[in-house]
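re: ur msg from earlier - yeah i can do the iron/sulfur cluster complex, just paste it... oh wait u already did. ok heres what im feeding in:
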Amino acid sequence: MIITKPRDWDRILANMAEVDARRVFIMGCGQCATVARTGGEDEIAEARRRLAAADIEVTGWAVGEVACHSGGTRLETRRHSGSIEEADAVLVLSCGAGVQTVADATSKPVFPGLESVFLGNVVRHGVFEERCQMCGECVLDLTAGICPVTTCPKGLLNGPCGGMWDGNCEVVTDRECTHVLIRRRLAEQAREGTGVLAPKDHSKQLKPGSVNLRGERGKGRR
Ligand code: SF4
Ligand code: SF4
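and the outut:
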């Protein structure tokens, strides 16, 4: 899931001031941002309190099923078209993908209410960890299912680096070095590994990504 965190309120209020917004509609997200406790009903209530304290009226709010779903978000904006029409701006408590989906669905100025920080594994309720940066050229087959691109703070494919000390990472010092973990797991599985990993092909990460499963097979995939 996409992990988000609250955005600096001074910046949000500056955004509102830029368009002279005295009335605002708030849109949340029923998926990732609700689970991350950044864009569900409780956080919308907090946003309403903060906007009221700044003398900004909230014309309405909604938590759609998934903010980044174009069809669902268009439906949600139609459902609340009256309250959105009354508003000078829309504040979106979702990841950047959701903000853009809302911005496509209304002609009102749309502003992000959160920062999007990473694609996160749910370790347990309320605890998230970054394990994949979607590099487009996965090496987990060679690294015993441990991602060096993401879990090594330096993103080193081949390590450990010179700073590793007593098996621990020199950057995140309370964690074992990713490359120690990789080698241990490979050994536990009686695998030798493949030696030095080749440099990554960063063209695999060219943006923007797109996949079109409706067209000719494979067309539109990157
Ligand atoms: S190598 Fe790491 S960042 Fe790349 S796809 Fe695999 S898990 Fe994700
Ligand atoms: S100690 Fe290991 S995990 Fe930490 S930065 Fe160096 S190679 Fe990466």
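cool cool. Residues 152-154, 156, 159-161, 163-164, 169-171, 177-179 surround iron/sulfur cluster (ligand 2) (CB under 6 Å). ping me if u need the other ligands too
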